[in-house]
Every structure is written in C-alpha cells, then in structure tokens.
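User: quick one - fold this with 6-O-phosphono-beta-D-fructofuranose bound?
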Amino acid sequence: MTTEKKNLAKLKRIGVLTSGGDAPGMNAAVRGVVRSALYYGLEVYGIRKGYKGLINGNLEPMNSRSVSNIIHRGGTILKSARSSEFRTKEGRAKAYETVKKFELDGLVAIGGDGTFTGASIFYDEYNVPTVGIPGTIDNDLAGTDFTIGYDTATNTAVDAIDKIRDTASSHNRLFIIEVMGRDSGFIAVRSALAAGAEAILIPEKDTNVDGLIKILQDGKKNKKTSSLVVVAEGGAYGGAVEVARLVKERFTHYETKVVTLGHIQRGGTPTVFDRVMAGRLGVASVEGLLAGKHTTMVGLIHNKIAFTPIHEALKMDRHIDEDIWETARILSL
Ligand code: F6P
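Assistant: Sure. Structure tokens for the protein plus 6-O-phosphono-beta-D-fructofuranose:
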C-alpha cells in the first residue's frame, strides 16, 4: 500500500459491483473501494445487481456517506446477481455501452469465479480494465490464501455444529451436516476441524461412504456415543441426504439425522478477519487500477497484498491444505 496520492493511469471515474453469491464482508470491501477511490481523487459509481446493472445502466454516484454504517453488515448494499445475459456477446455489448455512457475508466468487481470469468472476457472484447476482489464464502480461488466471507461462513457453520453437538450427545445420535461449497470442501474441512467432527466428505478428496462407515464403526469400538459428520454440498453423493440414506442401510448403531445449514452461511455480521481483509483489498484494488492493472485479482498471500492475473486465479488447482486435513483426521479418534 502506498499513501502517496499518485494517479499514474490518469483515471477519472471507476465503477464498483458485487456479483455472484453474496458473502459477508462484501460491504466492507465496497466501502474500501469507494473511500480509497475518493482518497485518490477519483469519482466512483456503484453498479447495482452486478453485471445486470452494467447491462441496464443501473448505476449511481457514490460518496463517502454512501458507505457509512455498512462495515458491519452482511449482504451487499449494491445487491448481487448471477447474470446469464452477461455471458452473451449481446449482453456484454450493452454493458460496454453503459461503460461509455458513464465514462468509466475501470471497474472493481467483487465476487468469485463466475464474476472473474466475465471480467476477463469483457477485457478481451472491450479493453475495460477490471481488478477483481475475491468475495465468496467458498474460498475456491487461487492467488489468495482466503476469500472474503470464508472466515465468517466457517464461524457460522461452527456455531451451528456446536449446537448440534449438544443435542447429538444428549440423544446418542449421528448427525450428517451439509455445509456449502459448490465444488469445494474448504468450509467443510475448516468447520469440521474447529467443531471436532468425526468425519468429512468433500469433492477434492477420495472420501466415500465405505470409508465413512469404517470411521463410524471404529468410533463405536472406541465407545463413542454420538457422531458428527460434515459433508460438502458439492461432493460425489450430491449432499447429506443421500449420504445419510446410504449410511442408514449399513450402520444402525445410532439414529441418523440430517441437517443442511444452507444459506445461513452466506449472511451475518462479518468477522474482524473478513472486515480487515475487505478494507485492505478495497484499497489495493483501486491502487491496482491506478497503477494500470487489468484482468487482475488482488488477494492476500502470507498476509501481504498480492496481484494475480485472473486466469491464474481461476485455475481450479487450489488444493485443500493437507496439514489441516491430516490434523482433522488425527484429532477425530
Ligand atoms: O456463493 C457460493 C455458494 O454459496 C456456494 O457455496 C453454493 O453452492 C452456491 O453459492 C449457492 O448459490 P445460490 O444462492 O445462487 O443458490
């Protein structure tokens, strides 16, 4: 971060949008973008409902008061959407008309893989510089150790699993708990480790019902009287309901219950970690645009600001941390 007010790219006006699934901390990131843009002498427009707003010209100028009292709020004041129209050439052509009409020199797009794919295609077609801020509870982007919202979502999941533990233990039951993560098991692994779950099923690992039943049988031999299993929604079985059905057929030691945590993981007050990261990435995104960056994502690597080309950030080769995975396994005995 530099406090010197340099405007190397000679930008005048930028737009900011949130797109895809919302994530706690997005508001803090919008605040970071708006206030740092003003600090550097730029005008800033808020684009409503993600790329939809860019297509429909749904924009409004923002000032420092537009982002007052939002740092602690979940959701996104700019609203979010998954725009199918922006995936079409015609949709992007309309979006470019808006960029010209409002004389936007650059964009900050806060979202996940879909948001960044859109930004990258848009740059290839129309040269509109975009810096991306990773905002998704799934934590499934390369080029950053964490995405905004992941910490809050795992805290929400752990809070819920702790409550389930109380009743599981009172009734000697097995709970199969489904957490979010379309194609990724980050929330599952971290929340399972923090909540002390017996087993985890995620898409990135060769986890299956056979292995799960072995773990449950070992737990029974070890005199466990209840068990918690965390399943990522995007796993091979398509979620907790199917896993529970298969387990019930072969393991009857406990009564089995299913809980799907669902969208509660997407809401709520962002944690300190998410707010601080969101503020830092907000400032860095504007500094990135000012330094002439485009099709780039700004993230945190080893707690330092890092810029990564969007095509690198989108590589789906981000692996679950083996150390965390192994720790969860060892501690579940
Ligand atoms: O934003 C990520 C995510 O919450 C995934 O974990 C989940 O699979 C998906 O979004 C759900 O999306 P929607 O709210 O559009 O159903």
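One thing worth noting: The domain at 151-266 is CATH 3.40.50.460 (Rossmann fold).
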